[in-house]
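cache lookup: miss for this entity combination. No prior model stored, computing from scratch. Input as submitted by user K.M.:
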Amino acid sequence: MSNWQEVDTYVKHWIKEAGDRIRKSFKSQLNIQTKSNRNDLVTNVDQETEQYFIERIRNTFPDHYILGEEGFGDDLKDTEGTIWIIDPIDGTMNFVHQQRNFAISIGIYHDGEGMLGYIYDVVHDELYHARKGHGAFMDDMQLKPLEEVDIRDSIIGVNALWVTENNRIDREVLGPLVRDVRGTRSYGSAALEMAYVASGRIDGYMTMRLAPWDFAAGKILIEEVGGVVTSLDGKELNILQKSSVFSCKPGLHENIQASYLKGISLNS
Ligand code: 2AM
Ligand code: CA
C-alpha cells in the first residue's frame, strides 16, 4: 500500500507544473482534431499533458496503473491495485473556445476505493483536493460538510440538451425539476461542476453520460464532504465504466430521486 501523503505531495507538484504548461500554451497555435464526432475535440495540449503525467507516474510509482482519456495509459480489466484515473483537460471544448472553464482531473483509487482526488481549475489557479478521511480543500481552505437544502432553494448543474429530444433520457423527465429549482447552470466541464458541488457553489449536478476520467476525482471530493454520487437511477458508479452521474448534497439526492426520478429508464 502506498504512502498517500507522499503520493499527494507529488500530485500537487505535478498538477501545478502541468497547469503552468497549459497556461503557457495559450500563446502558441493549437492543433485541434475531432474524435467520435465534430464536437468531441482533442488538442495536442490534451495529449501532451496526459503524457507528462504518465511519464512521471511510471518513473516514481512503477507498480501503479493508469487510466487516461487520451489512451496513453493501461488497458485495465479490474480495479485491483492503485489506479490513477486522469483527464488531462476536462472541458476541452471550453479550453479551445474560451481558454477558461476547464480543469485537470485526477482520481487515485486503491482496490476500487477512492483515496485521493484533485480537480485543478487551471485558469483561476484553484486546486480542489481531497484525501479520504482527511477532508476536502480548495487550496488551503477546508471545504465544509454539505448541508441539506430544499429543492426550491437549490441550483442544479444540468445541460439543456437533456430536456430536448435526445437518445439517452425521455425529454419530459427533467422538465419539472428544472422548473421547480431556483436555477440551473451548465459550465461544460463535469469535473469543475463536481468541484462546485463539493464546495457548495451549486447544490447538485446531473448528466446522462460521463467517462470514468470525468467523474473519478469529483466523486472522491464530494463524498469527503458528505455528498452523494450515483448514477441517475441511484446505482453505485463503476470507476471503469461510462455512466450517467447524479451528484448532490445529502437529502437533496433522495428528494430529487423520490419526486422526479422514480422508475426512470435510461438508454446506454
Ligand atoms: P471532456 O471535455 O474531457 O471530453 C461536457 O459536457 C462534459 O462531458 C465534459 O466534462 C466532457 O469531458 C464530457 N464529455 C463530453 N462528451 C462525452 C462523452 N461522449 N462521453 C463522456 N463524457 C463526455
Ligand atoms: Ca478530456
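stored under new cache key. The mean pLDDT is 97.
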